Amino acid sequence: MISVSIIGSGRVAKHLHDAFSLNGEIDIVQVVSRNTTALQGFDQARSTTSDFKDIADSDIYIIAVSDNAINSVSQQLNTKNKLVVHTSGATPMDILATHPRHGVFYPLQSFSKDRPMDFNKVPLCLESNTQSDLDLLKQLAQKITGRIYEVSTEQRKTLHLAAVFVNNFTNHLYHLAHEICKEKELSFELLRPLIGETVDKLSHLTPYQAQTGPARRGDQSTIDTHLAQLKKPVEIEIYKLLSQSIENTYGKEL
């Protein structure tokens, strides 16, 4: 049995709580948050508190808060030489260096409120300042997922950067496409099969191999037609920038 306390009550904290609660070998000792309303949703924890002075003893303390709050939260923890980790992709492990035993428990996924997550499909990126604590994090990770990776701070920062490209930027492009459709009273649903096929192809092709479209084939006439259709300067700039990047990537093949 591994005992954990979760510090935070946001989306990552809630999804970890839910994943841990499905495994009988994980004891969720406590969830700690200043947001007393949010704490009501953590019903599988043995206790909840908004007072850092009341923190219970656990094997591992998981700080699942916004990146800019990790340091201040860490300073409030009196963990009696227990393992303290954070869940951030972009924050160095050493921000927790005031704790003799520290590390990272980073789930590489986008979490949304009230949307269930199958944690067995979520890669967990682990790091610690000692091998024994890295082994402890592996034991915890193995109870909720089979996708476990030892990743250094620099590697994790690179993964987080890449994740912004494939998730955050891509979703924003979906939003722009949604707005373009809405302006002409077209349903975004028409594009969903295309989105699905684009993702499915990546199961057997590299992104380089999967690229299609006017910029890929050097079809300047279609590119000019699309640019003429766009009205917002930011959309025009994005279209030009991405088209140029694709042309630069495949230029020798056109």
Automatic annotation (TrEMBL):
Spans through the membrane: none
Domain DUF2520 span(s) in chain numbering: 122-246
Pfam entry (one): DUF2520
Protein name per the record: Predicted oxidoreductase, contains short-chain dehydrogenase (SDR) and DUF2520 domains
Residues covered by the Pyrroline-5-carboxylate reductase catalytic N-terminal domain: 4-87
Superkingdom of this protein's organism: Bacteria
InterPro entries linked to this entry: 6-PGluconate_DH-like_C_sf, DUF2520, NAD(P)-bd_dom_sf, P5C_Rdtase_cat_N, TM1727-like_C_sf
